[in-house]
Amino acid sequence: MPSxxxxxxxxxxxxxxxxxxxxxxxxxVLATACAVAPDLDWFVDFLLRSPGTAFSHRGxxxxxxxxxxxxxxxxxxGFRRHLGSPRHxxxxxxxxxxxSLLDACTFGGTGVAFLLxxxxxxxxxxxxxxxxxxxxxxxxxxxxxxxxLGTEAVWIGIPALMxxxxxxxxxxxxxxxxxx
Length: 180
Prior knowledge:
Blueprint: H1 4-17, H2 25-36, H3 41-48, H4 64-78, H5 86-104, E1 106-107, E2 130-131, H6 139-177
Parallel strand pairs: 1-2
Helix pairs in contact: 1-2, 1-5, 1-6, 2-4, 2-5, 4-5
């Protein structure tokens, strides 16, 4: 899995992409929570030691059904007045599902059970540029963790920077074209 930093950055970027100007605080907080929350299954997997089951890491909490449920929960908690807003729904759903997509693009670990409970098949991306992030408990794992952060900086950070910079570059470009 990408680290919590990678998933957080994905949630922040998605909230910025779905809003005009600076995203309202609750939008970026809830989008970030949706992007990070599926990894709570790691603790269940760690405590129960149940690899390969529906509740193991990258199982049910990483499915399309769970992403829809997480987006629904975020909408009810933060956007009761805007439940009919496709933009808010799209933002929360994209943030929730971004977690599974990023996990499918990591090199290492198990596949993602996108279709649980309908299918127990686990899927990995054909292209896996992000290295799985270990929990750095020793010197060798620390080096691996730093390397995985580097892959996240390239494959998550650069596109995020482009999303954040695009409106500013467009505004700057408009200002330069307007006569003084």
